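Quick one before lunch.
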Amino acid sequence: MNEKLDLVKLIKDKINIIDVIGKDQKIIKAGHNYKALCPFHEEKTPSFIINYQKQSYVCYGCGKNGDIFSYAMEKYKISFKEALEKFANEANIEVNNYTKNTSYKNNSRFYYNVMKTIANFYNKNLIDYLKNNSLSLLEKKKNYL
Ligand SMILES: [Zn+2]
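Model of the zinc ion complex:
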């Protein structure tokens, strides 16, 4: 199980997209959905639709769409990690409980090993290549001499 994803899911369960966007924009209920003036482009009539069920938004004016994380990243110019920490903080979730043993670290370990293997492979091949090439160059030189 990916614990980082679990944290995202946990945050999404606790944080409501209407509250998040409602801090920045005036939200109007429209049928099953909610709408607001788009926070990402200038407009006079709302084309920014928030889907409460899906906890997502889409703007029919500028095409921006996503969830609370992409909203915070775009709106406050923060990284995914910062958005994660911000919402975890607001939801009183201890991020450290999740990041201590995260798959992110396991992944970077995994990628490190993969990269090391690839580097070793290329190193060996490069040496072989240089050996073969310089040998054939020497051979060619011999032929010319
Ligand atoms: Zn827009």
